[in-house]
Structures are given as structure tokens and as C-alpha cells.
Write a structure and sequence with these properties.
There is one protein chain. By secondary structure, this protein is of the alpha+beta class. It has two domains: 48 residues, no CATH class; 84 residues, no CATH class. 16% of the residues lie in helices and 38% in strands. The chain has three helices and eight strands, in the order H-E-E-E-E-E-E-H-E-E-H. The strands form two sheets. A five-stranded mixed beta barrel has the order 4-5-6-8-7. It has a three-stranded antiparallel beta sheet with strand order 2-1-3. The chain starts with a helix and ends with a helix. 24% of the residues are buried.
Length: 140
């Protein structure tokens, strides 16, 4: 597993998003994992480049119990689920969601377009998603 994690973070350092695709069933895992979550295939996974495009499926705004000061530089944001174009579904931070556009976003779920953003952190990089600017421009 250590080699998988290292390759993933090395790719982020180069501005590239990598996932792993199961050679058995074709499912894509992002972030990459050791085995396929769809069929359980062990180690027979191939590296693929991820487009970074997806859709927000659901979200919730941070509150008193879920606020993380380390993420203040990402405001405004929500926690939510994203399905990427390649099919993987996972939880992440989604930039661009705020109280004043919450109703608009909720009305368009599960089809709010998002894209990946690589964010530098202290000693590493992480992936968050952001609502597409064109879509945000339609919000009241």
C-alpha cells in the first residue's frame, strides 16, 4: 500500500490526478486503493489518469461541531459526496457552496458540476473539488 500512496502523492506534486482501474470489472478507484471495492480484486489494478471532472451528489455545510480551522483557507466550502466522470464516488471538501446559495445547489442535486483542485498543505498536497464557475454564475 505504501507504494500506491507514494505514487499518488508524487503525481499530485506534478499536478496530475491518478486513480486505479480494476482489470477484472473495470471499476475505477479514486483516491487509489489496493483492491477493487466493486469486486474485491486484489492487486490487479492499473494506474489511470483522472479527468478531475465530476458532479456533486450531496453536501452539508460545516457547523460548530464539524468546522475545521485548518480548512479556513478553502472557504466557502461544504463537505459532500462527489462522483467523478470515471465513476468513483467519495466524500470530500467542495469549494463554492455557501449558505446563500445552498437552496440553489440543493435544487440541482445530484447534477452540480464540479472539478478537482489540488491544494498545497504543509508538506503535501490534497485534492478538493470546486463547483464549476459557469454553474456558480447562475446562482442567485
Amino acid at each position: 500500500m505504501e507504494k500506491i500512496v507514494k505514487r499518488y502523492y508524487d503525481a499530485l506534486d506534478e499536478g496530475q490526478l491518478l486513480g486505479r482501474q480494476c482489470s477484472g470489472c473495470g471499476a475505477v478507484e479514486f483516491p487509489p486503493v489496493l483492491t477493487c471495492n466493486a469486486c474485491g480484486e486484489l492487486h490487479d489494478m492499473n494506474w489511470i489518469e483522472i479527468s478531475g471532472k465530476g458532479r456533486m451528489v450531496d453536501f452539508f455545510l460545516p457547523g460548530m461541531m464539524t468546522h475545521q480551522p485548518v480548512n479556513d483557507d478553502l472557504k466557502p466550502y461544504a463537505y459532500g459526496s462527489v462522483e467523478i466522470a470515471e465513476g468513483a464516488y467519495f466524500n470530500c471538501i467542495i469549494k463554492g457552496v455557501r449558505k446563500k446559495n445552498r437552496d440553489f445547489m440543493e435544487a440541482h442535486l445530484p447534477d452540480v458540476p464540479v472539478h478537482a483542485v489540488i491544494v498545497p498543505r504543509d508538506g503535501y498536497k490534497m485534492v478538493v473539488f470546486a463547483v464549476d464557475e459557469d454553474f456558480l454564475g447562475k446562482a442567485p
